[in-house]
Amino acid sequence: MFSDWQSAVSGEHRTILQGEVGDIEAIIHLPDDYDESRVKAIAVCCHPHPLYEGAMSNKVVHTLAKAFAKMGLVSVRFNFRGVGQSEGEHDEGIGETDDLVKVCLQLSSYFEGASIWLAGFSFGSFIAANAAERINASQLISIAPPVDRYDFDGLVTNNSPWLVVMGEEDEIVPPAGVFEWIDRHPGRCQLIRFPETGHFFHGKLVKLSDQLITHFEPIVEAL
């Protein structure tokens, strides 16, 4: 998989991982002062719905991946099956979850001993949460989780810390539904609310990055 990475340096690197039905196109972000032997955690970032132009190039997903790399983590974003160079066809979240699990297992086998963090935006947040138990994620991050469209209540997740980030003026995922869902699970999720912010965080991406770094840097430093 990473046979040409022995001399890899910090920055963004395109690669091909393996999904359940074929190739998965991915970009791996290596932090500054990257040292393969000192990787403590890998953050895998999942993009919005592929049938509505969702792809790993999405600005929110790109912001997530860059923010984690700034914290010193290896971060990965990839195209779901049927998007870009990723093989296969959209599978209503079932195959996408299987692909995420397989991607995480590949990364774990390469970066031995590193924990896995899962992050997702919109549809991608459901896929990440759906896979959390299967790969024993150490952190779960959900940006604008579509709790009105997918059965988040029925997910079997592990007990990893779960951060939810929600724009208060989201025009696609009703914020009230997300806040009510969190209230039904007291203590399960930590919430960061973004006032005057829509679904795609237009004009708020720098603030999103800053908030994530502020929240997670102490956790990274403790690894």
Primary descriptors:
single chain, 5 helices, 223 residues, Rossmann fold, alpha/beta
Walk me through this protein's architecture.
Helices cover 30% and strands 22% of the residues. It is of the alpha/beta class and 223 residues long. The chain has a single domain, classed as Alpha/Beta hydrolase fold, catalytic domain (Rossmann fold). An 8-stranded mixed sheet has the order 1-2-4-3-5-6-7-8, with helices on both faces. The longest helix has 17 residues, at 94-110. The chain is globular. It starts with 10 loop residues before the first strand and ends with a helix. The mean pLDDT is 94.
Structural class: alpha/beta
Reported CATH architecture: 3-Layer(aba) Sandwich
Largest sheet: 8 strands, mixed
Q: Quickly count the helices.
A: 5
Task: Write down the domain tally.
Answer: 1
Write the layout of secondary structure elements.
Layout: E1 11-18, E2 23-30, E3 41-46, H1 59-70, E4 74-78, H2 94-110, E5 115-121, H3 123-135, E6 139-143, E7 162-167, H4 175-183, E8 190-194, H5 205-221
Parallel strand pairs: 3-4, 3-5, 5-6, 6-7, 7-8
Antiparallel strand pairs: 1-2, 2-4
